[in-house]
């Protein structure tokens, strides 16, 4: 009985406090395994980019199927349709569901489809020396020239990385230009930033995740 009482009492005692000089038993291998490598970050963002494009296309197609005829009234919209309409207003600057709206939505759908078709055609490369950009393309006319990712990209949030990746692919479709601050519909549809945010708004409801001084080129 006494031995049992001693054992029970010892189990109830708190553990001895850790002293500063006591070694910590840390599995450094496990810590390394839990931190994604730059290549893993790029691969994850690439998968999320493809998912966003697929989701955006599905929602756009669902709305395009409701495009009214000449004498038809306004279509009945659901919550997902309203997300597309709002993204058109916020990022492509066509807020009214008129003839121009449907034409621009079809154009945007075509650009997103081209972005999707480029998957796997642009090699990914690293540039750890660049301190100004998240990523960039060296030749907007040639996907085989690759997409370069910087240290700013690696330290950004996962939401930022997927928006950046979507942005860079759009350069291979619309060109090297940017119109970051534009409110003009014709410029917005030719801007990789606006197109990437349009996709993200429809697919995830999250936009402008890259808030640091670095930029997307």
Task: Describe the 3D structure.
The protein is an alpha/beta fold and 217 residues long. The chain has a single domain, classed as Collagenase (Catalytic Domain) (3-Layer(aba) Sandwich). 53% of the residues lie in helices and 7% in strands. The protein is built from nine helices and four strands; from the N terminus they run αααααβββααααβ. The chain has helices at 2-12, 28-34, 38-64, 79-91, 99-117, 151-155, 158-174, 185-188, 192-203; strands at 124-127, 133-137, 147-150, 215-216.
How would the blueprint of this fold be written?
Blueprint: H1 2-12, H2 28-34, H3 38-64, H4 79-91, H5 99-117, E1 124-127, E2 133-137, E3 147-150, H6 151-155, H7 158-174, H8 185-188, H9 192-203, E4 215-216
Summarize the structure.
By secondary structure, this protein is an alpha/beta fold.
CATH topology: Collagenase (Catalytic Domain)
Please identify the top-level CATH class: Alpha Beta
Contiguous uncertain segments of 5+ residues: 1-24
How many H/I helices? 9
Q: What is the makeup of the main sheet?
A: 4 strands, mixed
Assembly context of the chains: single chain
Mean pLDDT: 87
Tell me the CATH architecture. 3-Layer(aba) Sandwich
The shape, in one word, is elongated
- Series of secondary-structure elements, N-terminal to C-terminal: HHHHHEEEHHHHE
Radius of gyration computed on alpha carbons: 25 Å
Number of strands: 4
Level of helix content?
A: 40-55%
Strand order of the largest sheet: 1-3-2-4
What percent strand? 5-15%
The chain-level structural class is: alpha/beta
CATH superfamily: Collagenase (Catalytic Domain)
C-alpha termini separation: 77 Å
Tally the structural domains: 1
């Amino acid at each position: 009985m006494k031995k049992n009482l001693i054992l029970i009492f010892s189990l109830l005692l708190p553990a001895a406090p850790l002293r500063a000089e006591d070694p910590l038993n840390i599995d450094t291998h496990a810590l390394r395994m839990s931190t994604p490598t730059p290549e893993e970050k790029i691969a994850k963002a690439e998968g999320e980019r493809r998912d966003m494009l697929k989701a955006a296309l599905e929602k756009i197609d669902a709305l395009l199927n409701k495009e009214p005829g000449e004498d038809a009234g306004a279509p009945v919209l659901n919550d997902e349709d309203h997300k597309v309409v709002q993204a058109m207003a916020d990022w492509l600057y066509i807020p009214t569901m008129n003839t121009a709206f449907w034409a621009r939505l079809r154009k945007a759908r075509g650009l997103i489809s081209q972005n999707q078709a480029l998957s796997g055609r642009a090699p990914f490369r690293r540039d750890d020396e660049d301190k100004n950009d998240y990523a960039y393309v060296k030749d907007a006319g040639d996907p085989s020239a690759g997409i370069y990712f910087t240290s700013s990209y690696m330290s950004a949030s996962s939401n930022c990385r997927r928006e950046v990746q979507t942005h860079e692919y759009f350069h291979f479709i619309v060109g090297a230009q940017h119109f970051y601050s534009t409110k003009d519909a014709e410029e917005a549809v030719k801007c990789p930033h606006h197109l990437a945010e349009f996709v993200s708004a429809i697919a995830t409801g999250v936009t402008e995740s890259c808030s640091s001084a670095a930029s997307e080129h």
